[in-house]
Structure prediction request, 811 residues.
Amino acid sequence: MKIPTPIKAVLSYGALFGIVAVTFAAALKPVTLLNVSYDPTRELYEQINPAFARHWKEKTGQVVTIKQSHGGSGKQARSVIDGLQADVVTLALAYDVDALHEKGKLIPKDWQKRLPNNSAPYTSTLIFLVRKGNPKGIKDWDDLIKPGVAVITPNPKTSGAARWNYLAAWGYALRKNNNDEKKAQQFLARLFKNVPVLDSGARGSTITFVERGIGDVLINWENDVLLIAKKEHVGKYDVIYPSVSILAEPPVSIVDKTVDKRGTRAVAEAYLQFLYSDEGQEIAAKNFYRAQSPKVLEKYAAQFPKVELFTIDEVFGGWQKAQKTHFNDGGTFDAIYQGAK
Amino acid sequence: MTNKTRKVAVTVSALGTLWAANPGLAQESETIRELKSQVQELDQKLRIVERRLELEREAATEKSKSATSISAGAGGFGLRSADTNFVLKLRGYVQADSRWFLNDKIDANDTFLLRRVRPIFEGTVFDKYDFRVMLEFGSGASSSAANNGFVQDAYLNARFLPEFQVQFGKFKEPVGLERLQSGANLLFLERAYPTQLVPNRDVGVQLQGELFRGTLNYAVGIFNGVADGGSGDFETADDEKDGAARLFAQPFRNTSIDALKGLGIGLAGTLGNQEGPLRSFVSPGQQRIFAYRTSTSTNAPNVEADGDHWRLVPQGYYYWGPFGLFGEYAVSGQDVRQVSGGAGAGATAELRHTAWQVAASYVLTGEENSWRGITPTRPFNLSSGGWGAWEIAARYSELDLDDDTFPIFSNPNTSVTGAKSWAIGVNWHLNRNVKFNLNYEETDFEGGIQNPVAAQGKEQAILTRAQVSF
Prediction:
């Protein structure tokens, strides 16, 4: 059947108008995102989320609500692989995000290249929190292996922070022992002999140390340690920076399979990009994360003492290698912990 | 620090201060320091143990959330996924009966038998899709081209909404009230006459649901169609299909009027076209009392269904506390034809058989009476003194066969033209799973003077049952 031109025009414009109207209506429909994150980021994202919601509403007119889920980084990654419908993940280490590609095909292999700084909008490191007056005289990693010192750190099998702690200690021991792996392993074995309780996540370790009063030193994220010492329990603890530690780069990613299914890709991408904005960087710094923005980092320089930091690539050849050598079943951690028990 | 250790530490500390101030006690200050150190060490150990226990509890709770749960109880045995979207239940029941006939002259009808042996597999997949497979291995269970009697139920019910569910497969047609009651929850061992005029299980599709917060249940379906009292799972006689529908209301279910909450009334019916063999009817003692003329010879009468078939079944029940009342009436209209030679060859008629029953029961031990069975509040246990639930029951039921049935379509000498039965019973529910029944049922017959059962004037049957269901 031949359709007259004027009717064609009406149909075309009508269809176009319909598509625009539907798109517009869909855009204005309130949307919810789920951010699956690791343990100590609760406070950070409690501030980021409303700030982004305001930003998004001003920009698009759409109301966005962000839900948070927190737990040990490895455990959280497994939950997403098992079906937890996360729009974005903000985990403790790249290895856990890699797993979303390798075990669930939920994100592309090159996910880390999608955002600046290897998709790490902020960095941190691992330092010590001791009781007021530092009764055990703890100054560096060596002090953690002394007899009678109780060290609180979570389980590297389930916690991202714990893996960072472990690698920081290993890196220190290597440096001290001319890269002798055996001596580094012995060092870690002695350290874990001093660990009385192995929590599944960093937040659990904080509870063990702060609320249950167990242990002499807590190894934890710099942001968590500073939050405890400077905001939550002022005057009760001392912060100790070891001579050397590791540069932790907690990465973020959208979960492609979920955002495409839920139609939330645009808002999820904007959410992660917001972390790199001046406002996002400022909030991160206020929560004791080291901002990537030089401007913001400089502004908050006073709260981050200078400490020598090595990267995982430099010492361990990247996360995949570190995971395989140390944390996979049968790795050095298993050997160390079996011996330490 | 725990309260106890804190008190010890404070005491030790106070003593230390006192003794340190006293030169005479100064030499003991070292001992005090050691004691303080030991107390602190013990306190740490205690905290560590407490924290480890706390973590173990947390881990156990977390594990239980993601673990598949296995259950075993009065409701059967089951597996359930952590998100409850997938469920598998293993249920079933076994009825070990006996039948004893008083003052009869029929050989071999006093017997023990396995009335029903029914394993049931049921469950849910993807939250909204229920399935049920119930098999039958009771005495006399058989299979034919038209009906595989070993498969009683086999269906899928898609629960899209409580108000909108679609069921596919083989299951009970939504018609007879007593027929729809589970065989494990019957008041008497054998169902009354109206059940013989309504369809049993059939294969088809049914739309069903609950409306108005469960006060109105509806079901409407299309099935192959079966003869009165019959089951089927394969159409062998005709292309026609039966429509069946039922509305059942419990108007006071959600009100505060306790005396009326257990009132339910309904109307059900079928409409279709039926061809092929017809079924015989039996007495309460399950002895044949009526049969259409059948023959494989072309010179002898053979009667078959041949045309419209409809049924209408008003029904209702009333339960209040331990009291229960139950009744239904059934009328079945079936076009029949004498399809063979001999007397009445080619004759047709629309036969309307009717039946009704009313049954009352009372739970002597006070439990709530219900169409879905009785749960004893104090299960039978000699050591704790529980006696289970005791229930008494009485029933009256009649069957009236259309006068036009005789003599062309059925032999009035070998088939009864009607039957009237009364029954009394005692049911002992030891617990939710075990029940004993004792019934006495007496039946007077009309006609059928050469029928072995009816010829004796009446049937006096004592029926017993031991049932386990789970």
About this structure: Confidence is low (pLDDT under 50) at residues 1-10, 19-26 of chain A.
